[in-house]
Amino acid sequence: MNTKQLQYFLITVQKGSIAAAARELDIAQPAISQQLANLEREMSAVLFERSFRGVSLTKAGQIFLKHAETITKNINEAKLELQQIISNHSGTVRVGMLPSIGNVLSMPLIAEVNRYHPHIKLDISTGPSYAVKEWLKTNQLDIALTYEQEIDHDFMSTFPLIEEYMYLVVGCNDNSANYHQLLNRDSVNFWELSQFELLMPSLKDALGQLINIYEQKTGVALKHDKAYSGQLMTGLRQVIQGEGLMILPSSAMYHLEESNVVKSLKIEQPEMKRLVLATTNKSMRMSDATLQMLNVIKSVTAHEQACDHWRGRLAISYSSIANKSPLNIGVV
């Protein structure tokens, strides 16, 4: 007895004739007749009464029907469980992040997944903080990397990654008075920011909200009337051209610093910082692939922090990530 025979038997019972079963299965009628005859021979019982009107179950057939349904149900359930195990460990994981986070994490994250987790497909989307939050809420993402200003505990589960430092970013432009003024400095007090024309996002964005919090906290009003598109790369181009300064984490511009295109000064008194978190939607069951991706994200975050690309204090302990990834994390 095999699953094909069980399928042919159950469809024939359901349709009431071998001819109808053949049409349903889109196979030749003699093939079904042969398989049913083999099944009856193996069971040593006549399962169908055949007539010109079709077929009906014998008493033996009625008994066999109960067992056939149970066996088929068990086989289907076994297949489903196995498919869930396979899909949980593989498949696509959709990760959303802000451009500044994407600048530091995207490439090493892709490299890590391709090298050590080829069974997982990583699908990265980038957008403003409010868009990433909405994507997670509407189940368009499995993981969202965002800031504490955008956290909604009603639907988000959170996994802290790093408390990043904020910097004043100025273009290395010899024609810029701001550059010459800040050339020999490594830090700047928050109140001093009021001296400069800043390119700043609106309060709709998490960074705009953070800056507003510090303005209210310190009583220092900043100048942010310069035209700004809200696009990170466009803003950095304006900074490089000397059209204004920006407040950013190192994740957003470390690559430009390494190329001596921009200079950054750590904002102090008070120290300006914000918490970055990985978040998931509480209403969605996390697959094993998603859990694996969370561990990869933690490992890559620690690696980039150790490389000084993402400057700040890790919000995850080394012990929780040291054995999760082949990355050489280093001392944190």
UniProtKB/TrEMBL annotation:
Q: Which InterPro entries match?
A: HTH-type_LysR_regulators, LysR_HTH_N, LysR_subst-bd, WH-like_DNA-bd_sf, WH_DNA-bd_sf
**A Gene Ontology CC term for this entry?**
cytosol
Source taxon at top rank: Bacteria
Classification via PROSITE patterns: HTH_LYSR
Which SUPFAM superfamilies does the record match to this protein? Answer: Periplasmic binding protein-like II, Winged helix' DNA-binding domain
Record domain HTH lysR-type: where: 1-58
The similarity annotation says:
Belongs to the LysR transcriptional regulatory family.
Q: What is this protein called?
A: Transcriptional regulator, LysR family protein
